[in-house]
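Incident log, support desk, overnight shift.

02:14 A customer reports that sequence design results differ from what the structure should imply. Their input is reproduced verbatim below. On-call engineer (initials T.W.) acknowledged and began investigating.
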């Protein structure tokens, strides 16, 4: 499956929704409630979701049950969502991440990693 313009539009639409939630009531908006709780709570949610992705993927392979594969896709969607909440909270967006990914095309992963000094 390839990413297309419509997929990118989903990210941009989500960016807009997350930005709009900054002005919403924390009692009626889950995202606004995360913003109100601050960076540490948002990071905790990202960590929880990352752990759930790992657990869902741990024993999955190409031959796995379609329900397990769908569950993994759902967990990754949760991780992406909460990562985007984090980005929005820090006044960033999916465009920042897409630009970073785009800049890596044509560069060896080893070269890119070395350039970060990791």
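02:41 Re-run completed on a clean worker. Output:
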């Amino acid at each position: 499956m390839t990413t297309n313009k419509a997929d990118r539009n989903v990210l941009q639409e989500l960016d807009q929704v997350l930005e709009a939630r900054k002005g919403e009531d924390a009692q009626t908006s889950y995202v606004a409630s995360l913003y109100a709780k601050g960076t540490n709570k948002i990071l905790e949610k990202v960590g929880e979701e990352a752990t759930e992705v790992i657990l869902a993927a741990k024993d999955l392979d190409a031959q796995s049950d379609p329900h397990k594969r769908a569950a993994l896709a759902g967990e990754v969607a949760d991780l992406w969502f909460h990562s985007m909440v984090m980005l929005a909270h820090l006044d960033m967006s999916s465009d920042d991440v897409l630009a970073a990914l785009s800049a890596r095309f044509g560069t060896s992963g080893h070269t890119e990693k070395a350039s970060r000094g990791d």
